[in-house]
Design goal:
The protein has five helices and six strands. With about 150 residues, it is of the alpha+beta class. The protein has two domains: about 80 residues, VC0802-like; about 60 residues, VC0802-like. The relative contact order is 0.18.
């Protein structure tokens, strides 16, 4: 999926409750009826990012600004960073559950294609791995994963 944008938010202060900020941000996005395609967070740095369709980006940013306006105004949060030059590769399938080494094979295949992985999200169901890459490398990444998993060409 190439028509997406990655929105990243990072606390400027360690005093911020990251879990509370994530909850408020996601509630605002949901209230604005924006679909979050994938979500990633780092408990170490308390930063988080999420992927939305480009046509919903302005709505998502408006919702964030409204919900977190005090935190932005007082410098507790850095301004949202937006990267529109990304794409989402989703590896999906019932046969993925319990397949030892599958994620490693997928990541290695993408690496061999010389495509850098920006972000990774996998749920506990083991049925989907979302991989964010630079848009110009998306097709190469898709082809590499298809070849690795014996799915033919893209």
């Amino acid at each position: 999926m190439a028509n997406v944008a990655l929105v990243s938010i990072e606390p400027a202060s360690a005093e911020i409750n990251g879990t509370l900020i994530i909850g408020r941000a996601m509630a605002a996005i949901a209230q604005a009826n924006v679909e979050v395609l994938t979500f990633l967070s780092s408990s170490y740095q308390q930063n988080f990012c999420f992927l939305v369709r480009k046509d919903e980006l302005a709505t998502a940013l408006t919702a964030l600004e409204s919900a977190l306006s005090l935190e932005f105004a007082h410098g507790y949060l850095g301004a949202p960073e937006v990267d529109e030059q990304v794409g989402l590769l989703a590896v999906v399938g019932e046969g993925m559950k319990g397949q030892t080494g599958l994620a490693g094979r997928v990541f290695t295949a993408i690496s061999r294609a010389q495509v850098n992985i920006i972000a990774i999200a996998q749920g506990a169901s083991e049925l989907t791995i979302g991989i964010v890459v630079r848009r110009e490398g998306l097709e190469l990444a898709v082809q590499a994963v298809h070849a690795e998993c014996g799915m033919g060409t893209a």
